[in-house]
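Design a sequence for this backbone.
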């Protein structure tokens, strides 16, 4: 059958105009330097509290630097077509596996839009206005309506970055990348030139200047969603908000003093306060003194021990260190995004593999730098305490001497109060989030384009604008689906959704593709592609480099899988998420399989084309 009948188009219509720097930029920006550091530190250490960030970073850099660079670089350079891993998996493994896995990944890219566009607003813009002393603006941005509006604006702007052509995208990307890296470097330099004593003094100075923290418990049922009929829930909430704090004034009810001003609130005091509970809350307004450096550590340690039932660790352990690598994967495993534009890169044999490698090494160097200076300046135990508070309570942890959550950018804001520096630091977080959304507009439309070329989808999937050389209608579909997701996120938030996406990619994207890479040199039906590969002679002890890379990749993915799905049985924060994520993966694969058979039938009946013939060759350039 003639190629033009097997494939939907004689030529892709896409243009090879991207350099190695552009390819590196795509991979590096998809690692999301500043927000991914936040995820690794706050989410990672809040669940795996004894994790060692330095060791986790070194292990991740080695395993991903070898595994991901070789797997995605060699596959992308051997099959340089836009569309990502769908091309590789459908040719090496089977069309059914290729489309099922790719269907899941298309869904993943939409999920990234509705997670990361809102993150640009909260915590992005929220932390910026908190740093600048405008907490009232920050509070308004957290409201569902405002969150939806501004996240939608981010979504729309990201669409415009891509829809007008890949060269426009590449130009803007360079500017965003320089500003984003510069802001992150500022954060690291703040910690580098701050001593442990200097950080302690800066925190204590803020505590000395802050007003007593006030909490009205009379409406805690509505405000904090506490079940007032559940005494254990009431006690837990009061413990998290009051244990380890010092009363700024007498806490009294009905003329009876429960806690005297200047006294530390104890377990017995908590029980006395809980005894006043009504269906709506506890008719008390409590003021506590701002937490000093030592006071914060004491309060968090007490809360974690008595309310959470786990002590604040004094040193690291191997189990938690490997567990932190799950959250750390955001910083190391996402350079693979380069392969979605492999058909638009000059010299893909060099640009794809080198772009992947440097997009892993550069974030690894930055994270190692950050981990070293944080442990020196903030300290191991203190950093874990801030991670717990950031992920569990944020700035609602009563007694914080500032209006923002104590994540690592917020800790830098404790040290410096220069508006320009604060804007650069928060701006770095915001810019990387915006570009994450933009990259969804690079990946999702090209996934659909690759399906369309193989006739696994409507013909308009392959429509490319002759003016801008982009699949415009695919971009529009991406925007509409992203808007639906943003609405769901804004009005029904689950802050753990981002980790759920990570779980899907561990198995449905990275795992399947690593197996394809492992088998690539040995599968007969793609032997002609392997023989034409510029990497066919890359061998160590007679073993192809792509197979060795796949082994490294699978070892890394096994670590992530174990600590995402198996360990959470002992980590309640992740147990429900893991079960729900597993169901999500099965459903998306099922939909992908159904999609394949529907379009196989449609092409057979309407056009008399067996789409299976397309999978013996690469799509036209």
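Sequence:
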């Amino acid at each position: 059958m003639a190629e033009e009948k097997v494939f939907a188009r004689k030529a892709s219509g896409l243009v090879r105009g991207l350099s190695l720097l552009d390819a590196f930029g795509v991979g590096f920006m998809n690692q999301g330097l500043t927000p991914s550091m936040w995820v690794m530190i706050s989410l990672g250490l809040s669940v795996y509290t004894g994790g060692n960030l330095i060791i986790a970073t070194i292990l991740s850099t080695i395993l991903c630097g070898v595994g991901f660079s070789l797997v995605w670089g060699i596959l992308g350079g051997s099959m340089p077509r836009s569309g990502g891993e769908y091309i590789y998996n459908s040719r090496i493994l089977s069309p059914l596996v290729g489309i099922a896995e790719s269907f899941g990944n298309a869904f993943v890219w939409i999920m990234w839009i509705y997670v990361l566009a809102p993150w640009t607003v909260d915590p992005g813009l929220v932390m910026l206005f908190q740093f600048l002393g405008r907490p009232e603006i920050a509070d308004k941005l957290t409201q569902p309506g405002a969150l939806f509006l501004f996240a939608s604006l981010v979504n729309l702007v990201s669409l415009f970055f891509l829809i007008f052509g890949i060269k426009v995208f590449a130009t803007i990307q360079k500017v965003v990348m320089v500003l984003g890296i510069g802001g992150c470097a500022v954060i690291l330099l703040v910690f580098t030139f701050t001593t442990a004593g200097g950080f302690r003094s800066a925190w204590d100075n803020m505590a000395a200047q802050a007003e007593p923290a006030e909490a009205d418990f009379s409406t805690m049922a509505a405000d904090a969603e506490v079940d007032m009929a559940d005494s254990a829930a009431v006690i837990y909430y009061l413990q998290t908000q009051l244990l380890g704090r010092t009363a700024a004034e007498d806490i009294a009810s009905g003329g009876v003093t429960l806690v005297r001003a200047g006294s530390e609130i104890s377990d017995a005091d908590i029980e006395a306060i809980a005894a006043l509970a009504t269906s709506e809350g506890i008719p008390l307004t409590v003021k506590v003194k701002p937490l000093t450096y030592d006071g914060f550590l004491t309060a968090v340690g007490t809360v974690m021990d008595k309310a959470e039932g786990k002590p604040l660790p004094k040193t690291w352990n191997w189990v938690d260190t490997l567990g932190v690598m799950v959250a750390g994967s955001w910083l190391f495993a996402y350079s693979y995004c380069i392969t979605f534009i492999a058909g638009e890169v000059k010299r893909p044999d060099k640009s794809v593999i080198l772009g992947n490698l440097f997009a892993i090494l550069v974030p690894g160097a930055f994270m190692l730098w950050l981990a070293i200076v944080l442990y020196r300046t903030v300290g191991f135990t203190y950093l874990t305490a801030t991670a717990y508070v950031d992920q569990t309570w944020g700035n609602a942890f009563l007694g914080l001497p500032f209006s923002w959550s104590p994540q690592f950018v917020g800790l830098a804001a404790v040290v410096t109060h220069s508006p320009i520096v604060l804007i650069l630091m928060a701006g770095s977080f915001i810019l990387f989030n915006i570009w994450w959304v933009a990259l969804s507009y690079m990946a999702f439309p090209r996934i659909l384009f690759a399906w369309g070329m193989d006739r696994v989808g409507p013909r308009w999937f392959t429509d490319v604008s002759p003016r801008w050389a982009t699949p415009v209608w695919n971009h529009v579909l991406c925007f509409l689906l992203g808007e639906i997701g943003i609405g769901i996120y804004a009005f029904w938030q689950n802050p753990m959704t981002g980790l759920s996406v990570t779980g899907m990619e561990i198995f449905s994207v990275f795992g399947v593709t690593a197996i394809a890479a492992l088998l690539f040199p040995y599968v007969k039906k793609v032997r002609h592609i392997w023989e034409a590969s510029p990497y066919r002679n890359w061998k160590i002890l007679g073993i192809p480099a792509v197979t060795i890379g796949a082994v490294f990749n699978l070892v890394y993915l096994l670590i992530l899988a174990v600590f995402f799905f198996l360990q959470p049985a002992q980590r309640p924060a992740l147990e429900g998420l893991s079960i729900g994520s597993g169901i999500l993966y099965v459903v998306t694969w099922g939909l992908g399989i159904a999609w394949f058979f529907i379009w196989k039938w449609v092409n057979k009946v309407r056009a008399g084309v067996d789409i299976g013939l397309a999978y013996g060759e690469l799509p036209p350039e």
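Strands lie at 213-216, 251-253, 256-259, 285-288, 539-540, 543-544.
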